[in-house]
Amino acid sequence: MRFFQEHRSLLLENLALRQQLAVLKRRNPRPRLAPFDKLFWVGARRVWSGRQQGLIIVTPETVVRWHRTGFRLFWRLVSRVRKRPGRKQTSPQVRDLIFRMAAENPTWGAPRIHGELLMLGFAVSERTVSRWMKRAPKAPDPAKRWLAFLRNHREAIAAMDFFTVPTLTFRVLYGFFVISHDRRCILHFNVTRHPTSHWIVQQLREAFPFGSAPRFLIFDRDAKYGLEVSTAVRSLNMESVRVSFASPWQNGVAERWIESCRRDLLDHVIALNERHLKRLLSEYVRYYHEDRTHLGLGKGTPQCRSRTMTSGRVVSHERVGGLHHRYDRAA
């Protein structure tokens, strides 16, 4: 009899709790559940077969969805803790080095680059190097290839070019020069009002007397360099190297000298006539060869100016009419 009374009171208590939950649900149709509440119902789903009759706050489908979400979260965390399967990924540093070596050395293959990486202490297979080389740029920058050609043949290269100078009477004079790539020496220069192919041929003969011509001669595609110039270059046992259209950087040594001449001389004077301009250029070329230091020559001069090792008073000598000076130690 006592057992039936306890069972009856338990049912009444359960009914009272359900009534209170029904009232709470009417006041708040969608209550917010904490993560612990979700874990409770997920666990109850595993041990309580009659859970669907007692679910009031949430539906059985919601509990199933929570369980599946927890399943995915669990295995995602496990996958992060465990080591990733497969081979070790190539580090960005090694990858960038492979691209750099392939770009700077277009004739190198995977074995050569792999050997360099081993010398640097990088543990990478040759197969990995070969795979990454396929993604590297196929050819280096054309400017770098041209620069490498100039450096490797500078003893056998000369260049010629023109530059214009306005005169006091608003006429235009043309300055012509031939420069050697080896020590940046000006082999020949002249001034004219009317540059023609025959005039250029004569200047080349004066610039390279007695078989002193270099192997290559660089010049642009100006119309002044006609057929006669190409014929004269071949007769002097030189090979013509014509730069591309609108590519002055391919004749960079000559262009740089023109820039230096303008900055050091022509921007500070007004040429009166051919004779006056030729005298100014003659003084500047002498200063350029004997006194002016060059960054491309390791701060030396084309004619190898010696450094003063003795002590003494510093004296200055005017050059180019006082535009520049040379400094020496007094004896």
Describe this structure as you would to a colleague.
The protein has helices at residues 2-27, 35-47, 51-54, 60-81, 92-104, 110-119, 126-133, 142-152, 197-207, 227-235, 252-264, 274-290, and strands at 157-166, 172-180, 186-192, 216-219, 239-242, 314-319, 324-329. The strands form two sheets. Strands 3-2-1-4-5 form a five-stranded mixed sheet, with helices on both faces. A two-stranded antiparallel ribbon has the order 6-7. 47% of the residues lie in helices and 14% in strands. The model has no long low-confidence stretch (mean pLDDT 82). Helix 9 (197-207) packs parallel to helix 10 (227-235). The chain has 331 residues and is an alpha/beta fold. A hairpin with a 5-residue loop joins strand 2 and strand 3 (186-192). The protein is elongated, with a radius of gyration of 43 Å. The longest helix is centred in the N-terminal third of the chain and has 26 residues, at 2-27. The protein starts with a helix and ends with a strand. The chain has three domains: 2-81, no CATH class; 92-140; 148-306, Nucleotidyltransferase, domain 5, CATH 3.30.420.
Structural Rg = 43 Å
Instruction: Supply the helix-strand structural class.
Output: alpha/beta
CATH architecture label name of the largest domain: 2-Layer Sandwich
Indicate the overall shape: elongated
Number of strands: 7
Largest sheet: 5 strands, mixed
Task: State the end-to-end distance.
Answer: 135 Å
CATH first level of the largest domain: which class?
Alpha Beta
Count of helices? 12
The name CATH uses for the topology of the largest domain is Nucleotidyltransferase, domain 5
- The helix/strand series, from N terminus to C terminus, equals HHHHHHHHEEEHEHEHHEE
The domain count comes to 3
CATH superfamily label of the largest domain:
Ribonuclease H-like superfamily/Ribonuclease H
> How are the strands of the biggest sheet laid out side by side?
3-2-1-4-5
Overall mean pLDDT score?
82
Poorly predicted runs are: none
Question: What is the helix fraction of residues, given as a range?
Answer: 40-55%
β-strand percent reads 5-15%
